[in-house]
Amino acid sequence: MRGFLASSIGVTCATALALPLALTSSDTAAVTRPAAETLPGSTQSLPLGPLGADRAGGAEPRDQGLARRDVRPFSLVGVVWDDPDVELHGRVQVRTRATGTTTWSSWQEVETHNHEHAADPGTAEGDSGRVRGSTAPLWVGDSDGVELRVRPDADGADAGRATGRAGRVLPEAESALPAGLRLELVDPGEHPAPPAGAGAPQGAPAKADGVHQAGLPDAAGGLLTAESAAASAVNADLAPLGATAVTPLDRAHTQADLLDARGGDVAKARPYIGPRPRIVTRRGWGADESLRERNFAYTRTVKAAFVHHSATGNNYSCSQSPSVLRSIYRYHVKSSGWRDFGYNFAVDKCGNIYEGRAGGVAKAVLGAHTLGFNSNSMGIAVLGTFTNTRPPKAAVTAVAKLTAWKLGLYGANPRGTTYLKSGGGNLYKKGSIVRLNVISGHRDGFATECPGRRLYSKLGTARSASARYQGR
């Protein structure tokens, strides 16, 4: 379904900033890297070719990839292809060279099944014509050399008869590797905003009036672009304009704020809602607001939370989390063709919580995280890969705190179940009414390994803790 522009702020922003951004040639390998102060980050897009002649490197005749080469600095890699309805049935491996050294990494696996993270079929975002097939992105750190190999499954015929992202049966002609394979090398750029640890600037909450004036000053004395002001203004009830973080509140004040906003009486009705956690805003992690589509899309409510892992690997420090987020954001928009960052929230290994898709952390923002179940839900990505690695306790606790607050805003019980209508996927047909846990793993709505078996096994702990934070 199409998102609803549900709030007065959302409607104002969507009306004034309505034109979507198309993929442009500015992200090809031939273009000079932009200056960080004008356009943070860049993407090099390199077409893949046959590796059959590279017998010394162990390539097979049907393999595609890139031989070792020098490139401009980057920190995250992924592979994209033309048709988002075609899956890559095979193995993608990459090795990289640390910037300024002669040291090459070992071969690293890139998660190939990423089609289950996307907008629902039939939505404006899903049918935009800009969406591409894509692997999960992999964080490799600051690098300036790359080598890549993509090997199709041995049984190409079986792969060709597999199903696409929305359950479409693919013909045998689409076996082997998808058409238009390209390697995407993403440089997150320098952090253009004040450090995320600086907290929210002091001052009165921002109002929506006039937020579209270019160069609007924020509460910290900086200047905001029109897009940055709009992305900040949708959090006006929680933080001043240009704040780098939404400050936490204890449970009593969170309850009081919620009831006050709804005209309730705290003495007569105490809602089940957890204390509001600290949330680093998009400005706090340095999102370049000129990348995304300018309007915001909303769904009706938030009945469930889907937990994911980003599958970007675990080789990052928490101080690098903003860079990881900027890289994923650019990969989602410029490489995969999505309208914005796919997840509503992200959580790093230290338990820091980050605003994801723009539209307001307290609002029912329509994401692109769980194919078929993006409506009336939210997506939380824990940064890392947790198939064989145990998620840090701090990350699981952060998921519990975030869900206790956000689900509490919409009256949902973290220990309970709910019903969602499928928008189409490989587990449930479009239109199916599906019973799901209020806190579910991605694999509950789609046949996928996400969020990794080690993180999935911790969801019971997260549900219980979230309910306790709500006072249940």
UniProtKB/TrEMBL annotation:
SMART domains, sorted: Ami_2, PGRP
Record bears the keyword RNA-binding: no
Annotated region (Disordered), positions in chain: 34-67, 112-139, 151-171, 185-211
Claim: Cell wall biogenesis/degradation is one of the keywords in the record: no
Domain Peptidoglycan recognition protein family, residue spans: 277-425
Sorted UniProt keywords: Signal
Biased composition (Low complexity): 157-168, 196-208
Signal peptide: 1-29
Residue ranges annotated for the N-acetylmuramoyl-L-alanine amidase domain, each copy included: 291-452
Any single Pfam family the record assigns to this protein: Amidase_2
Similarity section: Belongs to the N-acetylmuramoyl-L-alanine amidase 2 family.
Record-given protein name: Peptidoglycan recognition protein
Source species: Streptomyces flavofungini
